[in-house]
Design a protein that fits this description.
This is endo-polygalacturonase. This protein has 369 residues and is mainly beta. It has two helices and 26 strands. The chain folds into two domains: 59-192, Pectate Lyase C-like; 207-368, Pectate Lyase C-like, CATH 2.160.20.10.
């Protein structure tokens, strides 16, 4: 099945994942976990070569300004029941790259229990807080829980592969599938200004991309499979000037998902554009906009009343095409009174064979629900 997805990806996208070969002085090549701190403190051209990280230990990479850090070979983590993260990266004016054939293996099957964060403790994989940075060519496999949480300014993430396909229901052993494995999540604890995420391939079991806070964010040329879609996650923060474009979403619960959290305080979502997005075989919704979101265990319905604590202004959709599976709803909108304003949707056509669109509280301009 994966070969079909890869064929679809490269048939439709005019980009090729770039690979790197790098070199560094022998003293700046790390082959043992115990060497990390010394090399990080004393080198600016660093290679992490096939590290095995002890269970319960964190790979802390507080990089000096101007550093280039390369992952080489297989970086892996031993089992320990905790919340992580397994890797933290911080620094200014840095570059982090994945060398050809390198992989960061979270060894997720050791933790997966089908319950995600509602089950046993599972570590997040990556936590990144950087400024003026490029993260290029990173290859991640089998995140135990959330794959990447990012806080950054003037940041480019490009040419990543996140492969959690082994955690899909029907692929993983019964009751040992992955859940809550967000691909790349722009967290709410930092402004996240001037961020670009591009040319990435993500197989996972939660939001492909989730933005909880950000200004001037561009997400483009993505292929997402099995996720909860391209997501705006309105919280007690401001999300402003976000563009999602030129991407394909396959076999997701939602293709496009805009949600606002009803219990987390006041916030604002404005000036968000989705453009040229293809949604194939969405399971529940092609497009879902809901102002009644609660973080609930898998399978529990979002059926509470909507709230306008986080209003949504200027939500634009242009050239959105695709389909939902039988029983899925092509377009679902649930807005609170005085919660949604000035949306414009053009050329939005999601097909479904058994359910009609469902718009409550608001209908976008130039769109027939």
């Amino acid at each position: 099945m994966r070969s079909l997805f890869v064929y679809t990806l490269f048939a439709c996208f005019p980009f090729i994942i770039v690979s790197y070969q790098t070199s560094a002085e022998d003293g700046c090549i790390v082959k043992e976990f115990e060497e990390v701190d010394s090399v990080i403190n004393n080198c600016k051209d660093i290679i992490l070569d096939s590290l095995s990280i002890p269970g319960g230990k964190k790979l802390i990479l507080n990089l000096n300004e101007g550093t280039t850090l390369t992952f080489r070979g297989n970086t892996s983590f031993n089992f320990y029941e905790w919340t992580g993260p397994l890797i933290t990266i911080s620094g200014n004016n840095i570059k982090v790259i994945g060398e050809k054939d390198s992989v960061i293996d979270g060894r997720g099957p050791l933790w997966w229990d089908g319950q995600g964060t509602w089950g046993s403790q599972k570590p997040k994989l990556f936590k990144i807080q950087v400024t003026n940075a490029i993260l290029d060519g990173i290859n991640i496999k089998d995140c135990p829980s959330l794959c990447t949480i990012v806080n950054g300014e003037n940041l480019v993430i490009r040419n990543w592969i996140i492969d959690n396909l082994e955690g899909d229901e029907g692929v993983a052993p019964e009751n040992n599938f992955a859940h809550n494995t967000d691909g790349i999540n722009l967290g709410k604890s930092y402004p996240n200004e001037n961020v670009t995420i591009e040319n990435c391939v993500i197989y996972n079991q939660d939001d492909c991309i989730a933005i909880a806070r950000g200004k001037n964010v561009t997400v483009r040329n993505l292929f997402c499979h099995g996720s909860h879609g391209l997501t705006i996650s309105g919280d007690n923060a401001v999300i402003d000037d976000v563009l999602f474009e030129n991407s394909i979403i396959t076999m997701a619960e939602n293709g496009i998902h805009v949600k606002t959290h009803v219990l987390n305080g006041d916030g604002l979502v404005k000036n968000v554009v989705y453009r040229n997005i293809t949604i194939l075989d969405a399971k529940h919704y092609g497009i879902s906009v809901e102002q009644n979101y609660l973080n609930l265990p898998a399978g529990q319905p979002q059926d509470g009343p909507p709230s306008n604590n986080i209003p949504i202004y200027n939500l634009s959709m242009h050239d959105i095409y695709g389909n939902v599976l039988s029983g899925g709803i092509p377009v679902f909108i649930l807005c609170a009174d005085e919660g949604c304003f000035d949306w414009k949707w053009e050329n939005v056509n999601i097909l479904g064979d058994s359910q009609n669109n469902n718009c409550t509280g608001y209908v976008p301009e130039e769109y027939e629900c």
